Amino acid sequence: MPLLAYKESHILSAQQLRKLSEHKYSCFSASLLDPLLQPWWNWLVSQTPLWLAPNLITIVGLILNIVTTLILICYSPNGVEAPPRWTCALCALGLFVYQSLDSIDGKQARRTNTSSPLGELFDHGCDSISTVFVALSACISCQLGHYPNWLFFQCFCAIALFYCAHWQTYVSGTMRFGRIDVTEAQFSIIAIHLVSAVLGPEFWLTKLPNFDCETRIMPLYLACGIDLLLTLRYAKCILTQGCGKNGSTVAGTSVLSPSIPLTLVVLPALIIAQKSPENLFTEHASVYIMAFGMVAAKITNKLVIAHMTKAEMEYLDWSLLGPALLFLNQYFNCIVPEIWLLWFTLIWGTQDLLRYCSQVCLEICQHLRINLFRIPYNPKGGAPHPATASVSSQSSFGSSVDKNGGTSHRKSKSKPH
């Protein structure tokens, strides 16, 4: 199997597609906010038309989240300038809508009898992209661009921890959410946006009474504490809870093997940012984070597929071409302007991610004989569509039993920031 190229006809092998059909979604959640939000999610899904496909709900939420973040970025591309208050309010709204829609897509899938492994994969794929924009928007709201090292740390920490959440799933076979996890992080970021909208982004620059530091230090240190907590939790799971033979991954591989793709993204990003003679990260922070974020999203999607198909994780990928060119360019004393290669990395990484995800979704749809964004019409009281019924019988994805004996919503968000 080639490591650096798409296969001529298919990305997924026949064995991977067969394993995907047999995949059962396993999740454990101890979230503090999820039980409180269930009534809102239940009401929202009850108002959703039955013809609206779950994956369409997910992608609409993602698009709104990306658009609102891009508007914020336009006014403060490096996180230094104070963005208008309304852009922060718009980001809060976009994230809230995304969070709500992302929480009801599984409910809608069971409601319409269209649950499938594709839904889990599609949800994780959207989350991998959203993580980049959510982390970046929070940093811009706090004007963290005044401290480039902190900006780099927070954004890449979010990206790395999202990957690690799926790494521990690849090792243990179960996605786990602690008491303070993705939902709590999302609402904390919504709160940051609302504070910036009401009091102005300048609020974060004010000095704390009796302390010689700015107000934004509070959410910064809180985020660092959560980052450390999640890191320790993921590390413990990865090192001790391998469900394969001799404590290996679901694919029977070393539990440390997924560290290689992550290292090939984060380490070059750090070296390039620190060694750039043109101050590439400082001058073009948003483009830099989005460029490397798309590369990280691609390898995260490949890790999710490796978990769902119980296959070995591939280490090298075409999306790494951009970071490699930036690194080599610095090695040869920047014979090409770095900003040109940075934009190439963003464009190349984005198209590569979209191409890969589109082809994978197409192959799964053809294999399971389902539609990605459309629910087959089913008259009231009629039997479920044959293809839909067969898929539902194959997969119990998203239907974990809660403490009251009911079913909980599809819980596939795993970004810690």
Structure keywords:
417 residues; disordered N terminus; two-stranded parallel sheet; mainly alpha
Tell me the overall shape: globular
Largest sheet: 2 strands, parallel
Order of secondary-structure elements: HEHHHHHEHHHHHHHH
Give the amount of beta strand, in percent.
under 5%
Which stretches of 5+ consecutive residues score pLDDT under 50?
1-8, 377-417
Total number of helices? 14
Kindly name the structural category.
Answer: mainly alpha
- What is the helix content? 55-70%
- Gyration radius (Cα, Å) is 21 Å
Euclidean distance between termini CA atoms: 35 Å
Mean pLDDT: 85
Number of strands: 2
The spatial strand order of the largest sheet comes to 1-2
Would you mind describing this structure in some detail?
There is one protein chain. The protein has 14 helices and two strands. The longest helix is centred in the C-terminal third of the chain and has 31 residues, at 338-368. Residues 1-8 and 377-417 have low confidence and may be disordered. It is globular and about 55 Å long. It is mainly alpha-helical and 417 residues long.
Describe the structure in brief.
With 417 residues, this protein is mainly α.
List the helices and strands and how they pair.
Layout: H1 14-22, E1 27-29, H2 34-46, H3 54-75, H4 85-111, H5 117-141, H6 148-172, E2 175-177, H7 182-199, H8 217-240, H9 259-275, H10 280-283, H11 285-308, H12 321-331, H13 338-368, H14 386-394
Parallel strand pairs: 1-2
Helix pairs in contact: 2-4, 3-4, 3-5, 4-5, 4-7, 5-6, 5-7, 5-11, 6-8, 6-9, 6-11, 9-11, 9-12, 11-13, 12-13
